[in-house]
Amino acid sequence: MDRMTKFERLKAAIAGKEVDRVPVALWRHFSVVDQDPVSLAEAQYNDAVKYDYDFIKLMPFGLYSIQPWGAQIRFTCKVNQPPEVTEYGIKAVSDWKNIDKVPAYFGSYGKQIELARHVSRLSKGSVPFIQTLFSPLTSARKLAGDRVFSDMRSEPEIIKAALQAITDTTLDFIRENINAGVSGFFLATQCCNKDQISEEEYHEFEEPYMLQVINSFKDETFLNIGHLHGDNGMFEDFADLPFTAINWHDRWTWPSLGEARKLTDKCLVGGMREIPYYDKTGKKIKESPLMSENVIEITEHIHESIAAVNGRGLIIAPGCCVDQSISEMSQFAIRAAVEP
Q1: 240 located within any domain
Q2: Largest CA distance in the chain
Q3: Could you tell me if 142 and 63 are in contact, meaning their C-beta atoms sit under 8 angstroms apart?
Q4: Residues of the chain under the 50 pLDDT cut
Q5: For residue 12, how far is the Cα from the chain centroid?
Q6: How many alpha carbons fall within 13 Å on the CB side of residue 38?
Q7: Which of 86, 106, 116, 338 has the smallest number of CB atoms closer than 10 Å to its CB?
Q8: Is residue 274 classed as helix, strand or coil in its secondary structure?
Q9: Is 235 within a domain?
Q10: How far is it, in rounded angstroms, from Cα 93 to Cα 75?
């Protein structure tokens, strides 16, 4: 089979067609430089070129979507020390009434548009890249903490108005990223999870706002990945959303890749365990294979995943962010493992 371009390979995988090799990508935060969009763009683009990954998932810091609404955040700019909330933007249920739509170029949102623009300038169409988004309810949770769940039960209309303002902000942000040249979006939710909300609450407070977000880009970009974060997720509900591909922690939560293939015909993005192994008491037994620097172990780990779905409709990737200190050896081994 002739060698495919990265765009051809990804589009074939999304369609479940034959590929010259299974596409692969890896993402990690760059917390040392992620407050400077130009430095972050260069770090991510250089990684993609060095390891020949098939696409770039842009990695803005995980709290960018809440900073405009008053959350106070501590930044260390050190490896494996991501920014953290020191004071929530929501301290009382009445504070939700202060959540208004903000311009797409405002504050931390604007930085991520510049990130996309600079990656576009660097890549010159050579590698697909996608922007990271959070579901509106996920952003609300980051802004308020877990009180968002009690607030949405006690004052549902107030929360819905705030969710719509966050959604409207996200929609403008999406439009500017499309203008910047992204190939798609990576929409993550931390709230499609039975440990936190019921299925009825998912359909009322999460799904409608995610659908507004997805519908705004699904016909304009080709690589649109939904990320289901955490254990005990509502996979079947999530798989019904109009993404082109789905990413979740397939190596340590239900379903496995093989089980997922029986539930959906969407492209599956996963196959690499990004976290260590733990015993039943929570004690760490062993590091993630990705951190092992053991070429044989990494190769076998990835080959198992490819075999689980016969190499069709699959993009090899981690279930979530990889440790920032992953070695060059491990990354070269990951890339080599997908060669036929």
Answers
A1: yes
A2: 61
A3: yes
A4: none
A5: 21
A6: 0
A7: 86
A8: coil
A9: yes
A10: 27
How many C-beta atoms lie closer than 10 Å to residue 82's C-beta?
17
Q: Supply 206's token pair.
A: 């999460």
Residue 122 CA, distance from chain mean position: 22
pLDDT of residue 202: 98
* Number of domains comprising the chain: 1
**Whole-number CA gyration radius for the chain:** 19
Cα–Cα dist 242/240, whole Å: 6
Between CA 235 and CA 177 the distance in angstroms is: 28
**Residue 1 located in a structural domain:** no
> CA-to-CA distance for 186 and 191, rounded, in angstroms?
15
pLDDT tens per residue across span 70-113: 999 999 999 999 999 999 999 999 999 999 999 999 999 999 99
Q: Are residues 144 and 190 in contact, defined by beta-carbon separation less than 8 angstroms?
A: no
Angle at 29 between CA 287 and CA 99, to 5 degrees: 125
Confirm if 269 and 315 have CB atoms less than 8 A apart.
Answer: yes
Q: Distance between CA 142 and CA 134 in Å, rounded?
A: 10
Alpha-carbon span 15 to 314, nearest angstrom = 10
Would you state the pLDDT for residue 299? 98
In a domain, 333, yes or no: yes
Any idea what the CATH number is for the domain that residue 211 is in? 3.20.20.210
Cβ atoms of 137 and 205 within 8 Å: the answer is: yes
Task: Specify whether the CB–CB gap between 211 and 202 falls below 8 A.
Answer: no
Determine the Cα angle at 282 with ends 187 and 75, to 5°.
Answer: 50
CA distance 228 to 240: 12
Look at residue 282 in the predicted model and tell me its pLDDT.
87
Structural domain for 36, as ranges:
6-337
Closest among 71, 49, 205 to 142, alpha carbons compared: 71
Question: What does pTM read for this prediction?
Answer: 0.97
Q: What tokens does 103 get?
A: 């311009």
Residues 6+ apart with CB under 8 A from 13: 19, 22, 23, 267, 312, 313, 314, 315
